[in-house]
Amino acid sequence: MRRSVMGATAVAVLLASAACGGRGEEGGTTAQGECKGQQTTGITDKSVKLGGIYPLSGPASAYGQIPVGVKAYFDSVNAEENGIGGRKVTFVFRDDGYQPARAVEEARRLVEQEQVFALFQTLGTPSTTAVWDYAGQRKVPQVFVATGASKWGTDKSHPWTIGWQPNYISEARIYAQFLKGEKPQAKVAVLYQNDDFGKDLLGGFKKAIEGSQIKVVAEQSYEVADPSVDPQMRNLAGSGADVFLNVTTPKFGSQALAADAKNTRWNPLHIINNVAASLTVLRPVGFPNVQNTVSAAYYKDPVDPQWANDAEMKRYKAAMAKYAPNADVNNQYNAFGWAAAASFHKTMQAMKCPTREGLRDAMRNLKDVRVDMLLPGISLNTGADDGFPIESMQLMRFKGERWELFGQVIDTRKEFGPVTH
Question: Which interval of the chain is the signal sequence (predicted)?
């Protein structure tokens, strides 16, 4: 069934391509109708070229597994389904070391030298922020950026850039709702990264607890260049807080967990944000030391036994074994990359024109699009006034050697209303 539906969709895409006419650079196409004059750099009837930017080195290098999952997905689709709509996908990714200036350099190389059709994922709020003006000026789609900053969905002056994962304000709202039920008089200590990422989630959390008995009693920030967060953790431990909100990227998330475990006099409920909730973060600390830590999820965990017979999980694991045999199939960041690539696949299928403008319009008009690696009940939705593809999450608690989902999927759109700035 899956192949027959995709086959039908591929025919539709090719017919749309034929209706739009020929190919060419911006302003030089021979296309007819609504696609005339639109950009076709990086895409032909038989191919599409994408470029990604990730921290393969530096303080956020744990995220370097994400493009491995992305590439395994595209390699699988190229081999098994002749690409997306008959177009074989070439995925080129570059290392920015989690440095915004390098991200801009790599974006220029990908767009101007590699001639990519779109930037599929720039990772990190600072790097994506550095790139989005350039992407907008060049009118290059910056699709499903790997960061949950709320501005990707609220800033209408950057229509070429869109996020993918739940935004940090929505995630913060879920933790606040959890505490209102679990610890309604919680005293919260917060460690956060001193940039738009950390401030976004912390600000969202503070706003979400307004009017409740929950109080933020201590805050400590860190810089990406800091060697350690041990000094900050010592200060937070003396705050008297009974909840610790850990708003960090993987390296610092692991350090904070380890510091918390060492301090036997401080035993708060530990909440860690999703972007640092991978087993690669928890394992170095020792699983016995991270029991009952709370986080939230939106895509399937390869370690969770409830997905053992899931068709998409089987497909993911088979493709990883074939196309990325040296990678850890249970690494959640690989699954993240797979889910994001599958979302891009669905978005390309929805394009009315096989052009950069067509992709921009498709990514902003997703209607209840199901992606099989997302948790049941979660789908992609965007619109003229909604630039957030995913706004639903489910809480999870660490038990034994893995995360266990609990409660129901929470649609933050319905539960809390739209995120605005």
Answer: 1-18
Unique residue bearing structure tokens 């949950």: 148
- Whether residues 156 and 188 fall in one domain: no
* Cβ–Cβ < 8 Å for 17, 84: no
pLDDT digits (tens, 9 = 90+) for 168-208: 999 999 999 999 999 999 999 999 999 999 999 999 999 99
Domain that holds residue 66: 2-166+303-390
Give yes or no: residues 309 and 217 share one domain. Answer: no
Distance CA 42, CA 92 (A): 12
Same domain, 70 and 145: yes
**Quick one: 17 and 134 in the same domain?**
yes
d(CA 180, CA 273): 17
Q: Is residue 222 part of a domain?
A: yes
Q: Which of 403, 401, 396 is nearest to 286 (CA)?
A: 401
212, 343: one domain: no
Which CATH number goes with the domain that contains 133? 3.40.50.2300
Domain membership of residue 153 (yes or no) is: yes
Count of other CB atoms within 10 angstroms of residue 177? 19
Q: pLDDT means per 10 residues in the chain (421 residues)? A: 42 39 38 83 98 97 97 98 98 98 98 98 97 98 97 95 97 97 98 96 97 98 97 96 98 97 94 97 97 98 98 98 98 98 98 98 98 98 92 98 97 89 64
* Burial class of residue 23 (count of CB atoms within 10 Å of its CB; 0-12, 13-18, 19+): middle
How far apart are alpha carbons 376 and 313 in whole angstroms? 13
| Total domain count, the chain | 2
Which residues are 303's β-sheet partners? none
Three-point CA angle 151, 152, 157, nearest 5°: 85
Tens digits of residue pLDDT in 274-318: 999 999 999 999 999 999 999 999 999 999 999 999 999 999 999
Q: Does residue 421 fall inside a structural domain?
A: no
Residue 114 placed within a domain:
yes
